[in-house]
Design a protein that fits this description.
alpha+beta, 134 residues, binds zinc ion, 16% strand
């Protein structure tokens, strides 16, 4: 059974308990890495400047503490493998909904319409809890 490494555990600990519950279950089935949880202002500003996020601090869900957003990728990481990212996201969303009745929004399908070709800004590792933003 796969297990999270030290960095993944540390990142996961900065996230909302619901995200922790979901991904502690996901890791039992699919090996994956938590690349980011909470994000401070310095890091958010940097990613904004690099065009990797559309949101300025403190408007991102990663900026909350605990974080309502999490970036997770299947391991080993292949950024070019869109199909694998999509398969992983479907598994995560199904698990979250089926086991915990939580709707997650995924960065490969922001409008959550189950179409991925209409997604204008791809952020494949990104999952966030849809409700209770503030
Ligand atoms: Zn993210």
């Amino acid at each position: 059974m796969p297990r999270f490494g030290t960095r993944s555990k540390r990142n996961l600990a900065t996230c909302d308990k619901r995200l922790q519950r979901i991904f502690n279950e996901v890791i039992k089935h699919v090996d994956c890495s938590v690349i980011e949880g909470h994000r401070d202002q310095q890091r958010q500003d940097k990613l904004y400047d690099e065009g990797k996020t559309k949101l300025k601090y403190p408007n991102g869900r990663h900026n909350l503490s605990p974080s309502l957003a999490i970036d997770v990728v299947p391991y080993p990481i292949d950024w070019k493998d869109r199909e694998r990212m999509t398969l992983f996201a479907g598994f995560v969303k199904g698990l979250a909904k089926g086991m915990y009745n939580i709707d997650l929004r995924w960065g490969g399908d922001w409008d959550s319409d189950f179409h991925v070709q209409d997604n204008r800004f791809d952020d494949f590792p990104h999952f966030e809890i849809k409700e209770n933003k503030w």
